[in-house]
Design a protein that fits this description.
This protein is of the alpha+beta class and about 475 residues long. It has helices at about 5-20, 25-45, 50-75, 145-155, 175-195, 200-210, 215-225, 235-250, 255-275, 280-295, 300-315, 320-325, 325-345, 360-380, 390-395, 400-415, 415-440, 455-475; strands at about 85-95, 100, 105-110, 115-125, 135-140, 155-160, 165-170. The chain is globular and about 80 Å long.
């Protein structure tokens, strides 16, 4: 078996252990796994066949994943947070506070509660920033409903507070680098707000740095109903565009190897600046793997790249595998692009070219991603957008140019506000068209869907797997990209 296959199956069993433990099957899984491990070792000892030793090793990795997940979950849940009574404590702002209307949402890390994190809704003023140490007095509540509590658990957030008493004790209690990155992001968003109308500025901020604080409730709803939320979630599409632009910039004054190193550093800093959400981290890992594969001349194996990205993220936070719907959607969409999209394109092999603004490619890209995530969307959000294909076909081809002009606007704004306004005039028609498409198509209501059980999940993805296998067998030269 090639080394790449060894890594893939090792990663798969480790992630399987983490997933099983996340679903509360830890004790039963460990008992069953121990039985398999003992059986494989006994067979290997008597027959000396390497495959049984490999199966024993995989069983051990499965157990390691389950134990690691269980230990991480207990470490978070056992934090001594006093729920339901008035308390006073000091906490450090551990995120870039999100401003929405007349309030601010901040995540506080509380050292006296073993580093547990609390989401605190505060008044719009006074303004607080990342790294501020605050004195908080109020009542900590458990998140409701249970699904929301589970979602917050993967961020190690155990409680919420609504408009407690707050006062500033000190500033700069955390990483100076992170504080600078957040200020830099705020400067970029500020440049858009100065050079563009409000709705177009909000979209530019979402496309480039994933900032959604400027979205109105109506526009945010329109994005969800038009199936374009991924555009501002800094998905693999956005990260690929950003990586390409950054590499082109560094190649202007540095040799290729040094330019790639600088690009890797820049992408890592960008991920940190945007809050390091699961989907962004996954997209960045995949993008960097592609860049490094090209630089070293090694073949890029999408299957192993997906497995590596999953292992790295789960090793950093095992709770994201099951508790973070965004993580699941991100990986399903990626699998759809790698395996399902080529199979769909094989159905229209006689059609040549991508069409105007790459509309055919965008159609297959959107279709593959939508088909892969459909059951998860229905189960968690009650449905999916029936106009997603049309809206994405209309806007995806314009996104690279829109992002390029938006980044140019932000960069020039540090030199001249007047020149930035000129670039804003060039970017405005594109942003206006995209916001108009979102507003118009986002007015279509989501259809109601019935609840989906596990049997439907299994049957649906089994059908997709069969379709991909059938297409690859019929046209083996149609390769995954």
């Amino acid at each position: 078996m090639p080394p790449g296959d060894h890594f893939f199956y090792a990663a798969l069993f480790f992630l399987g252990g983490v997933g099983g433990a996340s679903l509360g099957l830890g004790p039963w899984l460990l008992v069953l796994n121990a039985a398999f491990l003992a059986a494989f070792l006994l067979i290997w000892r008597s027959r000396r066949e390497r495959r049984f030793f490999a199966l024993a090793a995989l069983s051990l990795l499965f157990a390691c994943g389950a134990i690691y997940c269980r230990a991480s979950t207990m470490a978070v849940q056992d934090a001594p947070v006093p729920f339901g009574r008035d308390v006073s404590f000091t906490g450090i702002v551990d995120n870039d506070p999100e401003i929405s209307g007349g309030s601010t949402d901040a995540v506080l890390r509380v050292p006296e509660y073993s580093g547990a994190r609390i989401i605190v809704k505060l008044s719009r003023y006074p303004e607080y920033s990342y790294g501020d140490e605050l004195r908080i007095a109020g009542k900590i509540e458990r998140p409701e409903p249970a699904s929301y509590a589970t979602y917050l658990l993967k961020e190690r957030v155990l409680g919420t507070m609504s408009f407690p008493e707050s006062s500033l004790i000190a500033s700069g209690r955390t990483s100076p680098l992170m504080a600078w990155l957040y200020r830099f992001k705020d400067s970029i968003v500020g440049a858009f707000n100065k050079a563009l109308p409000a709705e177009e500025a909000a979209l530019a901020a979402g496309l480039t740095v994933g900032e959604r604080g400027g979205f109105t409730a109506a526009f945010d709803q329109a994005m969800r109903q038009s199936g374009t939320t991924h555009l501002v979630a800094l998905s693999g599409y956005n990260i690929t565009i950003i990586t390409t632009y950054v590499l082109m910039f560094f190649l202007l004054f540095a040799r290729r190897r040094r330019a790639i190193i600088l690009t890797v550093v820049a992408v890592v800093l960008f991920v940190l600046m945007t809050g390091a959400a699961a989907s962004v981290v996954r997209a960045a890992i995949m993008g960097l793997i592609v860049v490094l594969a090209k630089e070293t001349g090694r073949l890029f194996d999408p299957r192993n790249a997906i497995a590596l990205a999953g292992v790295v993220m789960v090793a950093a936070n095992p709770l994201v595998l099951v508790f973070d719907v965004g993580f699941v959607l991100s990986f399903l969409a990626l699998i759809g692009l790698v395996y399902l999209q080529p199979a769909l394109e094989g159905l229209l092999r006689r059609v040549k070219g991508d069409g105007l603004l790459s509309w055919r490619k965008n159609l297959f890209t959107t279709s593959a991603a939508q088909f892969m995530v459909l059951p998860v969307l229905v189960q968690n959000f009650g449905g999916f957008s029936p106009v997603a294909l049309l809206s994405n076909v209309l806007v995806l081809g314009l996104i690279p140019l829109t992002m390029g002009l938006s980044f140019l606007l932000a960069g020039i704004s540090f030199v001249s506000s007047f020149l930035a306004s000129i670039v804003g005039i060039l970017a405005w028609p594109l942003l206006k068209f995209e916001t108009a498409v979102i507003d118009i198509l986002g007015s279509a209501p989501l259809p109601a869907w019935p609840a989906i059980g596990w049997a439907v999940f299994v049957a649906y993805y089994a059908a997709i797997a069969f379709f991909i296998a059938w297409r690859n067998k019929k046209h083996p030269h149609v390769e995954a990209i």
